[in-house]
Write a structure and sequence with these properties.
Blueprint: E1 3-8, H1 14-26, E2 31-35, H2 41-51, E3 58-61, E4 64-67, H3 69-79, H4 93-107, H5 111-116, H6 119-123, H7 133-149, H8 163-176, H9 184-194, H10 197-203
Helix pairs in contact: 1-3, 1-8, 1-10, 4-8, 7-8, 8-9
Length: 210
C-alpha cells in the first residue's frame, strides 16, 4: 500500500489520533512521517501543493493527498471496504449518518471542556483543578449524549465499532483521566475503547513525562 500518514511529533492531536486509529482498524500498511511543530515553511509549502491545506494530519495515498481527519477517514472507509477490510463506519445508513453527526459535533463543540481538560490531560498529565462553569455544562451534555446513544451493556455506539467510538471516547477521557465524575457504564465504555489495539498503538508513541 502506498499510504503515508503525516503526523506531528507532539502526539497531542486528537485528529492525528482519529486517522491513525482508523488506519490501524482497517489493518492496512502505511508509513508514518511525524513532522516537527510548527511545520517548517518548506514542508508546509509541499503539503499545500499536494493537499491544498498545509497541516496535519495529512494522508498521502499515491497521487491523492488529503487533510482534515473526518475527510480522511471517509476516504479510507470507501477505499478499503469489506470483506477485505473491517468497517470503520457503520454499515446501516442511519447509524452511519449518526456516527457522522457525533464526529461533527465533537469537532465543533465542547470548547469549555477542551480548555479545562486539554488533550495533554489525556495523553500526559491529568488536571486536578475543578471544572469551570462552561466545562461543567459541556461535561453534562457529553455524558447525556453518550448515555442516550449507548445501549445498556454495550461497548460500542452502533452495534459494531466505528471511528466515532474513538472520537467520543477521547472526549470522555478528558473527564475520566482527570478523575471527574462519570457514570460507571460510561467509564466502562471509555475503557473498552482504550483497550483496543489501535488506540494502544497511538498511545505507544507518546513520550513519557516525569
Amino acid at each position: 500500500m502506498d499510504l503515508t500518514l503525516y503526523a506531528d511529533t507532539t502526539w497531542q492531536s486528537p485528529w492525528v489520533f482519529h486517522v491513525m486509529v482508523a488506519l490501524e482498524e482497517l489493518k492496512v500498511r502505511y508509513k508514518l512521517e511525524p513532522l516537527a511543530m510548527p511545520i517548517p515553511s518548506d514542508v508546509r509549502a509541499s503539503l499545500q501543493e499536494h493537499a491544498i491545506l498545509g497541516k496535519v494530519p495529512c494522508l498521502a495515498h499515491g497521487d491523492v493527498w488529503l487533510t482534515e481527519s473526518s475527510a480522511i477517514s471517509e476516504y479510507l472507509s470507501e477505499r478499503f471496504t469489506p470483506p477485505q477490510h473491517p468497517r470503520i463506519l457503520p454499515a446501516d445508513v442511519v447509524a452511519r449518518a449518526r456516527a457522522r453527526q457525533v464526529m461533527s459535533w465533537l469537532r465543533t463543540s465542547m470548547f469549555g471542556l477542551r480548555d479545562d481538560r486539554p488533550t495533554t490531560s489525556v495523553f500526559q498529565r491529568p488536571v486536578t483543578r475543578p471544572l469551570g462553569d462552561k466545562a461543567k455544562a459541556d461535561a453534562a451534555e457529553l455524558v447525556r449524549v453518550t448515555e442516550q446513544l449507548l445501549a445498556p451493556g454495550a461497548t460500542t455506539l452502533f452495534g459494531e465499532w466505528s471511528v466515532a467510538d474513538a472520537d467520543l471516547a477521547l472526549m470522555l477521557m478528558r473527564l475520566v483521566a482527570s478523575g471527574d465524575p462519570v457514570p460507571q457504564r460510561v467509564t466502562e465504555y471509555v475503557m473498552a475503547q482504550w483497550g483496543r489495539a489501535s488506540i494502544r498503538k497511538f498511545l505507544g508513541y507518546i513520550p513519557t513525562t516525569h
